[in-house]
């Protein structure tokens, strides 16, 4: 408790702003892996829809990092972070807690699409069982998939669904985007955002949140270009079989990983120091989840447009 108090005095810990999902590098890595596994019809449709998206120019500005790489692939990779990028774009607005709608507001940030707050330890009749479950991650992936496959919709609506889908498939594979640990009063830790940890390997900022630590496992958020493409190719070649499964199963995998790999050893009353063993295992989990997200995104798009 003394360590936690010290961190709070220093202005870090629970007062830190909420983290996003995988950082930019993570989403781009998964998108790069997905592109390599898209069928020719899927690539053609994806490329056409990206041209119809109103924020196309945002991604075109980043093409300089990719040299002679095929334009459509570079745009697909850069579009993967759009759902996080609009959080800081004044053209978009925050919205109140939503109900499921077939016509979502296309200028809203939809912050509750990125996560779900499932209880870390269910089935005990504790306060976490009575707490309201927030977040729409799973159901929005299903809805956006149906929207993308609906040929009655115009290209702008389907392009909107595509770009959200690229991002949210990455989100659901980050274990801390489907779970929260609840205290005795039923208050969630916001997917580890309110749990401080110390990472000795981070010389610049060792004190961080558990959520941010996991978000940053893919590498520097600014990672682009050949370094990113090489990292994605290496990770994809290292990981062997990854079953496609259902969206609900993807969520269950992340929930189980949170229970067995993320939270064990993390005492909510302390600011734990993450040792080398924890970091090594976390990195292995993150790499596999990024590869699974990329392969499964490709599988989803290939099913929509034919293999």
TrEMBL record:
Domain of life according to the entry: Bacteria
Residues in the signal sequence: 1-21
Stretches for region Disordered: 183-208
PANTHER family: ENDONUCLEASE 4
UniProt xrefs under Gene3D superfamilies: P1 Nuclease (1.10.575.10)
InterPro entries named in the record: PLipase_C/P1_nuclease_dom_sf, S1/P1nuclease
Protein name: S1/P1 nuclease
Keywords, ordered alphabetically: Disulfide bond, Endonuclease, Glycoprotein, Hydrolase, Metal-binding, Nuclease, Signal
Entry keyword Glycoprotein: yes
Transmembrane segments: none
